Amino acid sequence: MLHQRNHDHATDMLNRNGLENALNASFNNTIIAEGKAYLSVILVQFTNGERVQARIGCEGLDQLLTEFEQKVAELTSQIHYFSRISTTELALATVVPAFDDQYLPMLCSQIANIAKQGFIYHSQEVHLHTYMGVANSYHTQDPAQLINNAFHAALACKESGELVTFFTQADQQDQKAFNQLEHYLLQAVRNDDLILYFQPKVELNSQKWIGAEVLLRWKHPVLGDISNEALIHMAEQNGLIIEVGYFVLRNAIDRASEWIEFAPDFCLSINVSAKQICSPVFADKVTALLEQYELPPRNLELELTESCLVSNFDIAKSNIETLTDLGVKFALDDFGTGYASFNYLKKLPFHALKIDKEFLTNVLDNAQDKSILRSIITIAKKLNKQVVVEGVEALEQHQFVAGEQCDVGQGYYYAKPMPRDILKFNFKNSTVAYTVHHTLIAALSLHNP
Description:
By secondary structure, the chain is of the alpha/beta class. The protein has two domains: 3-167, 2-Layer Sandwich (Alpha-Beta Plaits), CATH 3.30.70.270; 178-445, Alpha-Beta Barrel (TIM Barrel).
């Protein structure tokens, strides 16, 4: 019974509970207690593990990981414990002499080489792709924290593209701050403390507001104002992006359902993350919200970046097609910054594309940027896609994109992001969408958002 509690039943390696118990006992080792050596945990993440499992099955992956463990064990007698932390993650604990700076880097390099060499399963050659995070006991002698430190180091690998990352004292301080931010953000989401701002989207021919993009703001009493970009990055890092994304969807759709009473053609644009669009229940959730708040699907546009489509294209495609059939519009955001943007335009029913502001920043002075922008617009028009240009900040930029037959503009030249009441004021006091100049009137009329 004790063995079952501490071991993975498929591979007979230690599980996380077993590893924590083993580490705890190892801290009493004489050479570690006297500072002559320290314990290191190397967390090995197999980034293609789930794909390998889908290809050869659960038993196949179990066999590969067991073989991987055996090959790594042959490298050195200093590896004391192997553990299967999750389906596609292994951890190993090794004792490192206090003044040996070469042992860990060399061991990690050897582990990576074993993964690259490949394995044979039922005549199939299989390769495992790894990231490794390394944490040492001189930062903490709490077994759970030591494993968590290795996990955070492995996450840093994914962001940087490095094969191995070592947890440092600076990481420890960053992690404490990050954990505090995570706690604050979770509270903010659940207490409805996040604020939605709206940046108008302008029809270039008439300069009339035809809709708005939703942006997220957070006014924290200690941290101050936190921008949309910082919020989304934080939510993605700590796993709250689904919860934050649903908060935005629910509240934004609720607001839009009020506004269409006096602006029936108003279209609300909401950014969607990769985790959302690749969730099998995403289309159902959006449909339920539209029904709950009685917002016609044609008044909603969801914006996706190319990177959103990479992790699970099939599920993303299914969600997009289901909601498009319902009447929801989709826009491909940051167009032109990815290598497969045009390919996605062919494969998916995008209503519009948003040209990234990078192409507009120097368009008046840079002939190459001007040519690229014109080419994108020409192809989009031939594909019958609406062209939206973001980052319009000056009259000359507006004149250029309008002259190139772009459909919609967005940026500080037209209007800055604003609270809902100011946006509502503009739409409610006109039977058509308000022009740029009315922004000042609204701002002067409303002192509090």
